Amino acid sequence: ETTIHYRTINVTAADAAGTITICRPKALNAINTLAMEEIVHAAHALDKRPDVKAIVITGDGTKAFAAGADIMEMAGQTYDEAYHKRFMEGWTGLAAVRKPIIAAVNGYALGGGCEVAMMADIIIASENAMFGQPEVNLGVIPGMGGTQRLIRAIGKSKAMDVILCGVRLTAAEAHTAGLVSRVVSLNQLMPEARSMARNIASLSSIAIAKAKDCINRAYEIPLSEGLRYEQREFWSAFALEDQYEGMQAFLEKRQASFKDK
Ligand code: HXC
């Protein structure tokens, strides 16, 4: 296991999972510009490491994943400053990560916290998790993807209720609504995330990356183009040694041993 120290996050890599822990306990892990830069940097560094097969993002402690963007940092900000420094635009960098990103939501995921969770490919939550987009209470709107990703995850009416009316979703409600894929107890959250990562690690990382890429394309392009995109990615999988090995292993009734090529 190796540990690298950033200022607002901790990063560890063990057992095929690279874990980014948002660590600003005095502010309930609120995300400032530095935290964004460090998370994106760490995700890219983990994406390059051959021993890491999936990236987990979680929050330090038992109360919050992240209670939003940092209100201290934003309170005195002018339009001029937000525009010129392209406030929070750096998140677009996460889209280039090939490996699956799992958000392990361990408490409050409000505002920017909920938005960071939605940037992940899969959200799993502990029973005490709480999702919300309270930005309108502060005279602003979600600014890290909330108005775009929440509607795709839970539909228009529920997304409006969360964003316009401040409705918060418990872990169970977020699960029913389709925002979250698995709910576990708080002490099972990281074991569950690591077991998900281990499972992914036993598969062909190229097939996994292709599947993630195709699913995320569905957000970007119309169905007919998405189907063409998937078809080509599927055909190209037959150029992989891992396709031959995977199907051979099935026929020989043994475990496949993928080589990521
Ligand atoms: C900065 C924050 C913070 C935040 C909490 N804190 N959330 N600091 N930014 N988003 C700080 C508090 O000021 C406090 O510091 C400490 O963390 C503990 O918080 P409390 O409020 O005392 O805890 P509690 O009473 O348990 O309430 C928890 C809470 C509440 C319900 C999560 O903290 C809360 O409502 N936070 C704000 C949630 C929010 O509005 N998020 C959206 C932000 S806007 P002190 O020093 O007093 O101990 C946003 C925009 C996204 O995210 C788009 C950006 C591009």
From TrEMBL:
Coiled-coil regions listed in the entry: none
Keywords per UniProt: Lyase
Example of a GO biological process term: fatty acid beta-oxidation
Keyword Lyase (UniProt): yes
The keyword Lyase belongs to this UniProt entry's keyword annotation: yes
Molecular-function annotations in GO: hydro-lyase activity
Family: Belongs to the enoyl-CoA hydratase/isomerase family.
Protein name: Enoyl-CoA hydratase
Native source organism of the sequence: Coccomyxa viridis
